[in-house]
């Protein structure tokens, strides 16, 4: 009878160890899924920022370096264009991201800076050099 008890104790220990192993394995899997999701969100955010910056750069070059006119084409006011969480242009009150056209130290260069509101580091900084053609007077 005592031997039957020891067999069941051994079986219970084996069961506990296998449950512990699967719990640890599932915790590692959950961490990997969370990291993958965060990386995906970060990549989508950077992709949208790059697309918006490229649109602003094309508009800036079309307007021959005039930042206010370039943002006017895109729907912004002043030197800043605001986007909501879905990357649609919006008012400043419901904005999640901002795109600014800032003059750089170099002549004829403008930096397009895309920032997530509430964060200090920009998502993307794109320098754009616009050539202003000479005109005969």
Walk me through the topology:
Blueprint: H1 2-62, H2 67-74, E1 80-83, E2 97-103, E3 109-116, E4 124-129
Antiparallel strand pairs: 1-2, 2-3, 3-4
Helix pairs in contact: 1-2
- Mean pLDDT over the full residue set: 88
Oligomer type:
single chain
Number of helices: 2
Q: What summary fits the major beta sheet?
A: 4 strands, antiparallel
Round the Cα radius of gyration to an integer and report it: 28 Å
N-end to C-end Cα span = 112 Å
Could you please describe the fold and organization of this structure?
There is one protein chain. With 137 residues, the protein is α+β, with helices and mostly antiparallel strands. The protein has one domain (2-129). It is built from two helices and four strands, in the order ααββββ. Strands 1-2-3-4 form a four-stranded antiparallel beta sheet, covered by helices on one side. It is rod-shaped, with a radius of gyration of 28 Å. The mean pLDDT is 88.
Q: Notable features of this structure?
A:
137 residues, four-stranded antiparallel sheet, single chain, alpha+beta, rod-shaped
């Amino acid at each position: 009878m005592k031997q039957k008890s020891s067999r069941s104790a051994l079986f219970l220990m084996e069961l506990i160890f296998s449950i512990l192993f699967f719990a640890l394995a599932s915790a590692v899997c959950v961490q990997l899924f969370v990291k993958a999701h965060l990386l995906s969100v970060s990549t989508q955010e950077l992709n949208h920022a790059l697309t918006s910056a490229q649109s602003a750069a094309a508009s800036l070059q079309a307007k021959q370096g005039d930042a206010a006119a370039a943002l006017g084409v895109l729907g912004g006011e002043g030197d800043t264009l605001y986007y909501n969480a879905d990357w649609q242009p919006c008012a400043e009150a419901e904005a999640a991201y901002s795109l600014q056209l800032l003059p750089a130290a170099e002549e004829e260069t403008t930096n397009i800076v895309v920032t997530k509101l509430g964060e200090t580091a920009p998502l993307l900084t794109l320098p754009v050099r616009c050539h202003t053609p000479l005109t005969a007077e």
